[in-house]
Amino acid sequence: MNDEEERRFREFVAARSPALMRTATLLTGGDTHAAEDLLQTALAKAAGRWGRLENPEAYLRQVLYRQQVSLWRLLRTRRETTVAELPDAAGREDAAGAAELRILVRRALARLTARQRTMPVLRYFEDCPEGEVAELLGCSVGTVRSTTHRALAKLRVLVPELDPGAAPGGGLEFGNSPAEVWK
After folding, report:
1. Helices and strands, number each (H, E), in the chain
2. Phi-psi category of 128—alpha, beta or left, where left has phi over 0 and alpha has psi -120 to 50?
3. DSSP E strands, the chain
4. Across the chain, what does the average pLDDT equal?
């Protein structure tokens, strides 16, 4: 990498790292240490190809998703996450209520399998169409649909505030603006 490419890489990392870190955090179920490792791996891969990348952000996001799925596929024992009884955050309009809902969603995401967690993150946080998610993860569109459906059903059980029909005040519907919860 020459000096000009290195300067552009550093500028890109400085500008886009926060957004990429949020995505990595969601993909790892809120585990910031694992998210940092995941992002570091993706940035290291991008640095080696920096001069040849047409769309560096798309490349990095694809590496994040694929690396997370690869970790999920490993046959190691999954760390158990103990989550205390989830407090009720329904109906809160203040910033503390929004922060509490973000914490609830992150805890709920952490209780999903990596594959279940990846599908809603790609579909609703990253706003990727089903076909693109299927291509990124190397599976069929039907698998994306069914896994997303099961993940959302489990999230609605873990965090009832996400179910628009069950929560007082309508809850959060995933089709509207879920990215707002995770900001």
Report:
1. 8, 0
2. beta
3. none
4. 77
- Among 67, 65, 43, 75, CA closest to 56: 43
Could you identify the residue written with the tokens 């997370």? 68
pTM listed for this prediction = 0.52
Show the 3-state SS of 99-137: HHHHHHHHHHHHCCCHHHHHHHHHHHHCCCCHHHHHHHH
The Cα-based distances of 163 to 13, 49, 88, 118 in angstroms read 36, 43, 13, 19
97, two tokens: 């209520």
Residue type, 14: A
Contact 155, 162 (CB under 8 A): yes
Non-local (6+) Cβ contacts of 175 within 8 A are 124
Residue for token pair 């996400």: 162
Residue 80 pLDDT > 50, yes or no? no
Distance CA 109, CA 160 (A): 13
